[in-house]
Amino acid sequence: MAKKAAKSNGSSTAPATAATPSEVAALAVCARHGNKPDELLEIFHELQHQLGYVPEATLPVISKALNRSRAEVYGVLTFYHEFRRHPAGKHVVKICRAEACQSMGTDALCDHAERSLRTKLGGTTSDGAVTIEQVFCLGNCALSPAIMVGEKLYGKVDPKRFDEIIGSLEKEAAE
Ligand code: FES
């Protein structure tokens, strides 16, 4: 009798096992969410909160734990800008690109930030000091364009002010 071909979605039916601390963390987070596939976004958020980013090495264990294909899990991770796939720099600078900030010149501000820091949005400076990320509304629309550095919010940020803010971070690091 011919064997039936097993249907595969890219994941295995074997239980997920973890070897590294980030894989252990990923499995624990999945377990806290009952290994529910529809809680994948919450799982990524929690993992990023815990590790600072979502290491790609955790995707195979997450896919196994949730019984979703790796491609599906990877697709979700890369679709949402708020998930980091690499460790962030010492300072994370979030630049708002939502409507109010758009109308007040955030595109020019982003271009300036990328040029002056020599990295793209989502990237980190070569010295690991600053990561720049785009976000969509910081709740500071009346003072657009807005940015956030760590937990501190800044409004009406033009390229000159941006440079001053970054300069103060560098100064602070040198002290
Ligand atoms: S649109 Fe930028 S802070 Fe709200």
Task: Sum up the structure in keywords.
4-stranded mixed beta sheet, binds FE2/S2 (inorganic) cluster, single chain, 4 strands, 2 domains, Glutaredoxin, alpha+beta
Short description:
The chain is α+β, with helices and mostly antiparallel strands. It is built from 7 helices and 4 strands, in the order ααααβααβββα. α3 packs across α4.
Amount of beta strand: 5-15%
Structural class, from secondary structure content?
alpha+beta
Q: CATH-wise, what's the superfamily of the largest domain? A: Glutaredoxin
CATH topology of the largest domain: Glutaredoxin
Detailed description of the structure:
With 175 residues, the chain is of the alpha+beta class. The chain folds into two domains: 21-79, no CATH class; 91-174, Glutaredoxin (3-Layer(aba) Sandwich). It contains seven helices and four strands, in the order H-H-H-H-E-H-H-E-E-E-H. The chain has helices at 21-32, 40-51, 59-66, 70-79, 99-103, 106-117, 159-174; strands spanning 91-96, 130-135, 147-149, 152-154. The protein has a four-stranded mixed sheet, covered by helices on one side. A hairpin with a 2-residue loop joins strand 3 and strand 4 (152-154). Helix 1 (21-32) runs parallel beside helix 3 (59-66). The radius of gyration is 20 Å and the shape is elongated. It starts with 20 loop residues before the first helix and ends with a helix. The relative contact order is 0.12. Bound molecules: FE2/S2 (inorganic) cluster. FE2/S2 (inorganic) cluster (FES) binds at residues 96, 98-101, 137-141, 144, 146.
